[in-house]
Design brief:
homodimer, two-stranded antiparallel sheet, about 0% strand, globular
């Protein structure tokens, strides 16, 4: 897992413009927002899915970097004063605190463009049809029917008491869509999967994504700010519905376990090639930050 | 020209999610920011360049729509209070005034994703290699080495007295990169151009883009808010260097004419196929808003 984290770190370092290139302040801020932090869960999922299809690690690292650039941009924008208004992220001041709001907006915008630039490059995989399909998939996952739409639903729902299906609808968009893209892009880097196997991976990604979110909600109340690297207790302070506020800690923990079991069941047919996806599921559910 | 404007309007209408789809408020705001306004200069350039290579209008309309989505997103973000802080755009309240700041951030983010989703779709052109090349080109033009980078340079330069080369450096990024992309994407929809013809088009786009900007600076001091559909006199109020503040009105007008002549010279070798590009150059320079 550490090896994969290093590979995606290297890929990110490679694709991000140097901080010495003009406009230097923007490039410095882009690197600040992306490098040297984060659990890199989405890239790890790409690598694990890539192993199912014997994908070349170099391809997966670039596809995973593209997904992580989208994730990093979303964090920068979500932390803005007009959004979740947060000052701490990955143990450091958020981008608009370290720089300024205008720069943070442009950092997010530029990271999104860079993600598609990376996917369109022939280094990812020689077949242009695969690359353009990756672009399409990531664009849908990032946009108004995916991640950005989920954030809109989240903002609209703040202060409201959501039902469990409404919470799930929000998270399937806000975090689920990109986690699904991470898995499917990793798998797209290797030998072509039959539609059954793709459906297994997709089902896995759905449950793993929801498990990730339930654990996130648990950690928000159970861990401290120093461990999380972001402000703890934020959901309650902002009157957001979470799996914990709706179900309570004990039932939320049970739900996380159920989702883990569903995720593992989804990839049973893939046999030993899905070993690393299994390990990752455990990592997602037992993590402490 | 009117026919082309209608075709891109139809394409935009088609690719934007319906305002009834969840999240409805976000989709409504995306449509508000894009539809029913704007000169559609970039799409017109795509159509004109497409005519050089007998490109199918249906392909060009989608490629042009992708470029216009990027342009529309940039206006929404540039108008934010932390950026240029403007309340009027295309004769209507800006997106964050009509909705709210958080929605405006997400509208811009979602429009950018949508642009790449559109370009990745097989409806643009059957050849995936061409589509992925279009994605790469638009991503570079939109990102930190293009449009977003130009906006960063603009914000950093506010209050400073820029030289003409520094102004040009800013505008080649801020508006030039996307105008270049509009021309090259339009041309990519048709029969393959030899590298000489591509270079002619690229040179044309550079001069036409700068001419567009010089005229923009002139209109900011010479036209009124009602005609412009955006706040007139803003550059001086915000202490921004412009071609007018640096050169004065008479010399800025001369520069616009020189740039028009250079643009026309660049496409002379393309003969009658570039007729519409010639017409557009005149439109760019003599426009009143």
């Amino acid at each position: 897992m550490r090896a994969h984290q290093l590979q995606v770190e290297e890929a990110l370092e490679l694709v991000l413009p140097a901080a010495t290139l003009a406009p230097a302040r923007l490039h410095e801020a882009m690197r600040y927002a992306v490098l040297g932090g984060g659990k890199r869960i989405r890239p790890l999922l790409s690598f694990a899915a890539g192993e199912v299809v014997q994908a070349p690690p170099r391809s997966v690292a670039l596809a995973a970097a593209a997904v992580e650039l989208i994730h990093a941009y979303s964090l920068v924008h979500d932390d803005l004063p007009c959004m979740d208004d947060d000052v701490l992220r990955r143990g450091k001041p958020t981008c608009h605190v370290a720089y300024d709001e205008a720069t943070a907006v442009l950092v997010g915008d530029s990271l999104q463009s860079l993600a598609f630039q990376v996917l369109a490059g022939h280094e990812v995989t020689p077949d242009p049809g695969t690359r353009v399909e990756m672009v399409r998939h990531l664009a849908v996952a990032a946009g108004s029917r995916g991640m950005a739409g989920g954030q809109a639903i989240d903002l609209q729902s703040t202060g409201m008491e959501l039902s469990v299906p409404a919470l799930e609808f929000m998270h399937v968009h806000k975090t689920g869509a990109l986690i699904r893209a991470a898995v499917l892009l990793g798998a797209a880097c290797g030998s072509t999967l039959d539609s059954d196997s793709t459906a297994h991976l997709d089902r896995y990604a759905k449950f793993a994504g929801l498990a990730f979110q339930v654990v996130d909600d648990l950690l928000d109340v159970q861990a401290d700010t120093a461990t999380l690297g972001k402000t703890a207790g934020k959901d309650a302070a902002q009157h957001k519905s979470t799996y914990v506020s709706v179900l309570g800690i004990a039932r939320a923990r049970e739900l996380a376990e159920d989702l883990r079991a569903e995720a593992l069941r989804a990839i049973e047919p893939l046999g030993p090639s899905a070993r690393r996806l299994r390990d990752l599921t455990d990592f997602i559910v037992v993590r402490t930050h």
